[in-house]
Specification:
about 400 residues, alpha/beta, Alkaline Phosphatase, subunit A, Alpha-Beta Plaits, 2 domains, eight-stranded mixed sheet, six-stranded mixed sheet, about 30% helix
């Protein structure tokens, strides 16, 4: 029988919800970035996050989020985490949470991808390639989408992260064909010549540039984890693991026993409600990507704030459903400040909110020196040995 302090742990990653420039933000040209702070400023005090507030979302900050004051008596424990991985992509952040930091920088392509790589993709697919530059996905689809519909070309683009994105209209190139092209592309960028974190299929629909919409058939083909993660160690120890959202993609299915694809943040919360009703001993890991994909990259602070308020409302139901032997962890994988320059991720601290109905105390967990402290705590709870990268804070939760 597995002896645990908590029977079930639920980890929610609010994709891109950073909480201020990290200590090394200058190395990434991100000094001044503050996703939560700038979203609050955009709302001029009208951002209302009562559930995140009582969990301590503003307590961990040097300056409160406008409209979200620090809680006098937070429900549980709060802090923030510093990333040690070489990049600021979702893959880096999630892998590090699961005790597998990315120490070697992956390849980035600020001037577009090299011809030899694109030639192989073109030859395999039988299609020409257009785009090939760092760009916002919505912008490049609006610009080149009608051409892609007429010619059947592939729109290939990148960003400030280690990603290669391929966009195509679903009526011109089927989702399955696009996936097949992305799978082949993935095989080309696993090193040693090129090592890219994610190849992303970006299907879209719509009759013209004024009505194009990217669909929920997005699929991330991630670099295979370079070692074992917390998910692997748990699954190998017969401890149940659940992945919701793009978790399965980020870890290439490794260590995930039960998985759910999200159509949206609210669809993800529906899946979480379902898993909360299940009886198991283990860890549920969920990513909610709308903050990042729909609002952060598009530099839309008002949409970002509304998505936070929508999540907060659903969070109230989650708190009500938690059992005494459940533990909830809420964090993020990086920042994507909609009030900052550019359209890329931002190097920020991420919040760490930890709560269980059984807690009798509350307080600060301080600034954790690596995202891996989260994974170390999960392993500690289930008495499983992992990579020993992080430092568990389980003993601090009372």
């Amino acid at each position: 029988m597995i002896m645990t302090k908590f029977n079930r742990i639920f980890g929610i990653v609010l994709d891109s919800v950073g909480t201020g420039a990290a200590a090394d933000a200058d190395k990434f040209n991100d000094l001044g970035a503050d996703t939560l702070g700038h979203v609050g400023d955009a709302y001029q005090g009208n951002l209302k996050l009562p559930n995140l507030q009582k969990l301590g979302i503003s307590n961990l900050r040097t300056q409160e989020i406008a409209g979200v004051p620090a809680a006098n008596n937070p429900l549980g424990y709060y802090g923030k985490m510093q990333e040690i991985s070489a990049g600021k992509d979702s893959m880096d952040g999630h892998w590090e949470m699961m005790e597998l930091p990315v120490n070697k920088p992956l390849d980035y392509f600020p001037n577009g991808f090299p011809d030899d790589l694109l030639d192989k993709i073109a030859q395999f697919s039988g299609r020409k390639i257009i785009g090939n530059r760092p760009e916002s996905g919505t912008k490049i689809i609006q610009e080149l989408g009608e051409q892609q519909m007429k010619t059947g070309d592939l729109i290939i683009y990148t960003s400030g992260d280690s990603v290669l994105q391929i966009a195509a209209h679903e009526d011109v190139i089927s989702v399955q064909e696009l996936y097949k092209i992305c799978e082949y592309t993935r095989s080309l960028v696993n090193g040693p010549q090129y090592t890219i974190g994610r190849v992303i299929a970006r299907p879209y629909i719509g009759p013209d540039k004024d009505h194009f919409t990217r669909t929920a058939n997005r699929h991330d083909f991630s670099l295979e984890p370079i070692g074992k993660t917390v998910l692997d160690y748990l699954a190998d120890s017969n401890i149940h693991t659940v992945g919701i959202g793009k978790i399965n993609d980020i870890f290439s299915g490794n260590g995930i026993i039960e998985g759910y694809h999200n159509e949206s943040n609210m669809d993800g919360m529906d899946h979480l409600d379902h898993v909360l009703q299940e009886s198991f001993t283990g860890f549920c890991f969920m990513n909610l990507v709308d903050f990042d994909a729909m609002y952060g990259h598009r530099r839309n602070p008002m949409g970002f704030g509304q998505a936070l308020m929508d999540f907060d409302e659903r969070l109230g139901s989650v708190l009500d459903q938690l059992k005494n032997d459940d533990l909830l962890m809420i964090t993020a994988d990086h920042g994507n400040d909609p009030g900052f320059r550019g359209t890329d991720h931002t190097r920020e601290y991420v919040p760490l909110l930890v709560y269980s109905p059984s807690m009798k105390h509350h307080g600060s967990l301080g600034t954790r020196q690596t995202f891996a402290d989260m994974g170390a705590t999960i392993l500690d709870n289930f008495n499983v040995t992992g990579n020993s990268v992080g430092k568990s804070f389980l003993a601090d939760l009372n």
